[in-house]
Structure formats: structure tokens, C-alpha cells
Fold this sequence. Notes:
Layout: H1 6-15, E1 19-23, H2 27-35, E2 40-43, H3 47-50, H4 62-75, E3 80-84, H5 94-107, E4 111-115, H6 119-130, E5 135-140, H7 146-149, H8 159-175, E6 179-183, H9 187-195, E7 201-204, E8 212-215, H10 217-220, H11 238-254, H12 269-276
Helix pairs in contact: 2-4, 4-5, 5-6, 8-9
3-methyl-2-oxobutanoic acid (KIV) binds at residues 23, 42, 44-46, 84, 181, 183, 204, 214, 216.
Amino acid sequence: MAKKTVNTFQNLKDAGEKIAMLTAYDYSTAKALDEANIDGILVGDSLAMVALGYENTYNISIDEMLIFIKAVARGAKNSFIIGDMPYMSYNLSIAQGLENASKMIKAGANAVKLEGCNEHIINLTKRCVESGIPVLSHLGFTPQLMNTLGGHRIQGKTADKTEQILECAKRLEDAGAFGVVLELLPALSAEYITKHLNIPTIGIGAGVNCSGQIVVSDDILGKYTDFTPKFVKKYANLHDTVLLAVENYKKEVKSLSFPSEIESFELSSAEKEKLFIK
Length: 278
Ligand code: KIV
């Protein structure tokens, strides 16, 4: 299997084949996603909540993100890896954004994701792409702007708002973004935006007619149970599987049935005699 690139995303869109993406934060999950030949892996700043237990995504730094990107890059050899630029790691200046984006690439990401579309983000997108750093944009509900958006709210609920998001997406496309994540949008709004763009859209809570889909893998695997958004479908229930396994382990430890002889190492008869028959 060949390593996927930005071209894979465009080729899939052009061929009418959906792009399948998931998040991953650690080596073994990335390895499983890669074995499943998933198209793209996002090392999302959602890891602040899902892997580190924070209430939101504000408390993760670029240096912390790099640890997870390195782990994912060691596990995923073929999937295209996107590093999510955390809160305030790219908003202060172009120099700050470029420096932090380049750290992600050096850590093993193949691209970065930037939320929003103000002038600064559009310029930064352009400068990243000119510097060899592919950019995945993120519009609609953008978690880093949650406080200004007034919480987890569906975006693009009117024709006007949908046109505004499309306008943003077009500007980002012109700036060189290779794709746009559309989060929490009515399905028809996302379909309309997708139809009017050349680059692929990757939906999350944005209906079936985006060019592809992304979800948090811990959500669809039933591993993260604090909060499950309506748009998540559970493909496994790992929380319950882990719970049952741990309960069984505990029972066996307490009842001395673990470790058994199978999981233990033998001492030679000669050495045994020295210890026990004196
Ligand atoms: O941080 C994240 O995981 C994300 C998505 C799921 C799009 O931004």
C-alpha cells in the first residue's frame, strides 16, 4: 500500500468515492486505523478531552500535541496524518503559526488543521501552503471558538449563513487549503457547500453528502462515554468490554486463579531443592 497524500483526497473526491477519516492519539490505535487503510488520521485537539480528561480543548499546548503526533506517526505508515493546531498556537501572528505548524510536520504530521476563516487564517493558510505545509480548514462549528459561538450550536441554519460559510470555504480553497472540515451543519447546507467547492469537504455532524466523513474514534468505538453527540454511531462498546475484562482480572487475582502455571516461569529442580529442601 502506498502512503496517502493530499492528492489522494482530491482524487477520491473527483472519483466520487467517499473519504473516510478518524481521529487517533496513540500508537496502537493509529496502527489499527492504518491496517484498516483509513484515508486520513487526525490527531485532533479533542484529545484534550478524550485522552486527557479536560472539559474542553483549550488546555492543550503545541508541545503536548507533538507527543501524540509522534506516537501516531510511529503507528500509521500509510494513512495521511493531520495535526490539529491547538487553541492560540496559530492566532497571534503568521510567524507563530508557521513555526508551530512546522513543529507538527517535523513530528511526523503530513498536514495541519486550522479552525476558522478570518483574514489572519486565510493568510496563514497561504503561507503554510507556500512553505510546504498542507492545510485542512475547519468551518461550521469550530470548537476553539465555542465561547464566541455561544456553545455547541448547529451552524449554517439559514440560506444566508450557509452562503457565508461557502464564501469562507472558497477563500480558503483559493488560499490553497486541500480540504475543509464542516462540523455541525444541516445536511442540505453541507451538501450545498460541497457542490460549490472544488476541494473535498469532510463532514462531522454534517450529513452524508460531504466528500468524506470524520468522527472521533473513541466515540464510535464506545470508549469515551462522558458525552455522545447525536451524530455519533457506535460501532463497538469498548468501555463495557474493558470494564468486564478488568472485573474478571480482579476476580481471578483475588481468587488466585491468575497467574496460573501457564503465565508463570519455572525454577529448575536443582535450584528448587536448594530453596525448599534444606
Ligand atoms: O479535534 C478533533 O477531533 C476535531 C474533529 C473531530 C473534526 O477537530
